[in-house]
Amino acid sequence: MPSGDSGENISMGLEIEERGRELRLDRGTELRIEDRGTELCVGRGTELRIEERGTEPLLVVLGPTACGKTRYAVELAQRVGGEIVSADSRQVYRGMDIGTGKDLEEYTIEDGTVIPAHLIDICPAGYKYTLYEWLRDAREAIKDIRSRGRRPIVCGGTGLYIESLLKGLSLPEVAANPQLRASLAGKSLQELTAILSQMKQLHNTTDVDTAQRAIRAIEIQTYYQHHPEAAGGQALYPIHNAYLIGLDPGREERRRRIETRLDARLQQGLIEEVKGLLDSGIAPEDLIYYGLEYKYVTLHLTGALSRQEMRDRLLIAIHQFAKRQMTWWRGMERRLPEHPIHWLRGATEAEK
């Protein structure tokens, strides 16, 4: 840093990774660092204050399954010049289209313009995409969208993803633990859930609906027990400026939509989609890991359930899943009072 007398201006280039701004400061200017992950090199006696002024709020569209999030987010993106960042733990997988409800046609608006969507179809089916990877990829997508003068809109129903992003968690990449997995093999989902419920750190109970998912969650929490310094992650990238929109059609309307949508997906070829994945070489247990449609349709195709049993049990599981999602959002409002959810009750404008 150049030196000078008290009347001389001091010029410093400050690189803020999220924003790329340059600041020119006079001696004595007070700057306060809000984002703990920002690294600055300054001279003695200089106080720095960096605020989020000028950065538009991160828009977030959330809610339970079958509430119309995608359609609402697409229309919102059209109005504000936005692009969508998917916060869905299963839409990342290629070839899993009907069962995850990607509804890719909804990203094309009336004039033929396609609203860009990020973090969809980025992994092969059979892969196990993690929270660590989603946070890394979502932050990169948000940064990219803003760098082009567009508005990022996070849209999805995976509560753990959205809450972790807002908190700014930085997580370690937890490798597989073969010994732990072997010790848990053979335990029922109920037994595994009971083990997981005794662990204190945040885990995604909305998606723990198969034994494999529960084992992975236990694996992560076990890692934290042995590495307490990493437990719960570090809030290095908190988002202070966000606007959350929640869609809630109401319990009875939600239940009606879930049943109508399930029957439509079966008509559209859900069973054939899962059969194609199995025929491509993906192991049945890997599809069962993804839960819901892929779990129950795989059980049907491998002879464990009749078609009617599959449909009925899957319908119950989706209703239970939606209920857990709503429980998560209510809990998130208590855990993050600085990020209230602005609920739209009943049908949204996008669906009228």
* Widest beta sheet: strand line-up: 4-2-6-1-9-10
H/E series: EHEEEEHEHEHHHEEHHHHHE
Strand element count = 10
Annotation field: number of helices:
11
Shape: globular
- Indicate the structural class: alpha/beta
Please tell me the overall pLDDT: 82
Gap between N and C termini? 60 Å
| Share of helix, binned | 40-55%
Rg (CA only):
23 Å
Give the biggest beta sheet. Answer: 6 strands, parallel
**What percentage of amino acids are in beta strands?**
5-15%
Which spans of ≥5 residues are poorly predicted at pLDDT below 50?
A: 1-54
List the helices and strands and how they pair.
Elements: E1 58-62, H1 69-80, E2 82-86, E3 93-94, E4 117-118, E5 123-124, H2 131-147, E6 151-156, H3 159-167, E7 169-170, H4 178-184, H5 189-197, H6 211-226, E8 234-235, E9 242-248, H7 251-268, H8 270-279, H9 284-289, H10 292-301, H11 307-335, E10 341-345
Parallel strand pairs: 1-6, 1-9, 2-4, 2-6, 3-5, 9-10
Antiparallel strand pairs: 7-8
Overview of the molecule:
This protein has 352 residues and is α/β, with parallel strands linked by helices. Helix content is 41%, strand content 11%. The chain has eleven helices and ten strands. It has helices at 69-80, 131-147, 159-167, 178-184, 189-197, 211-226, 251-268, 270-279, 284-289, 292-301, 307-335, and strands at 58-62, 82-86, 93-94, 117-118, 123-124, 151-156, 169-170, 234-235, 242-248, 341-345. Strands 4-2-6-1-9-10 form a six-stranded parallel beta sheet, sandwiched between helices. Strands 3-5 form a two-stranded parallel sheet. Helix 2 crosses helix 3. The chain starts with 57 loop residues before the first strand and ends in a 7-residue tail after the last strand.
